Amino acid sequence: MAAMVAVYSGLVRKTTRVVTAAVCLTEPGTHAVLWRRGCSQYKQLTSNEDLPLLSQFVSPFTGCIYGRHITGLCGKKQKEITKAIKRAQLMGFMPVTYKDPAYLKTLKYVT
Amino acid sequence: MPRYELALILKAMQRPETAAALKRTIQALMDRGAVVRNLENLGERALPYKIFTHNQRHTRGGYFLVDFYAPTTTVESIKEYLSRDTDVIRPNVVKHPLTQEVKPCEGIVPVPLEEKLYSTKRKKK
C-alpha cells in the first residue's frame, strides 16, 4: 500500500503533497472511530422529536450520514438511525446538505 | 391506541388564516372517518430547505402534529386531499411512533473467528 502510494506520488508531481497527506490520516489496519457507544442506549427513534440525537450522526460540513465504521453501532441500530434521518429530511424537519447549527455543539450522549 | 400521525407543514400565514386551514384539514379528516386525538403546534420556524409547491417558493412554515385513529383504507384519500390543498406545504402521514415495539438491542455480538480460519469442506481425493 505504501509502495503503491510512493509510485503514484512520483508520477503525479502536482498533487504529490495532497496524496500523501490523504493517506497519512488512516493507515491500513486501524480504522478511525470518532466515538463508540453501546447500542442498547437508544430505545426509540421518533423522527420529529429526536433531532439533536439524529443530528449527531450527520457530518457538519456535508450533511452526510456517518458510516458504521465511525459510529460503531450495530447493524440494526445503524439501519434504524439511517431510516429515521432520511425520513426526517424528507418530511421537512432536518436539513439535508448541512447540519442544523443549533445542534452543532451537542457532544453529550443524548439518549 | 394512536395509529397515525400527520406531520403537517402549513404556509406561513396570519393567525386566523392558519386557524381556518387547520379547521378545514381536521374537518376533512373527520369526514373520512378518522378520530382526531390530539393537535400539537410546534411553532412557526424556518424550513430546513426551500420547498416549491403549488407554484410557490416557501422559506418559513408552521409545523403541526395531528395524531388520529383512522381506518386503513382512508389513509390514501387523506394523503390525496392534502396534496391538493394549496395552504399545505408538505403533508406526511406516518404510523404513530409510540405504537412501535421497542426491542432491546444486544449490541455487536463477537463472532468466534477461530472456527472460520480453516475451511470445513472435505476435499475430494
From TrEMBL, chain A:
GO molecular function: small ribosomal subunit rRNA binding; structural constituent of ribosome
Compartment(s) of residence: Mitochondrion
Entry keywords, A to Z: Mitochondrion, Ribonucleoprotein, Ribosomal protein, Transit peptide
Gene Ontology biological process terms in this record: mitochondrial translation
Gene3D superfamilies given in the database record: Ribosomal protein S18
InterPro entries in alphabetical order: Ribosomal_bS18, Ribosomal_bS18_sf
Keyword Mitochondrion (UniProt): yes
Pfam families to which the protein is assigned, alphabetical: Ribosomal_S18 (PF01084)
SUPFAM superfamilies: Ribosomal protein S18
Domain of life: Eukaryota
Keyword Ribonucleoprotein: yes
Gene Ontology, cellular component aspect: mitochondrial inner membrane; mitochondrial small ribosomal subunit
Family of the protein in this entry: Belongs to the bacterial ribosomal protein bS18 family.
Name of the molecule in the record: Small ribosomal subunit protein bS18m
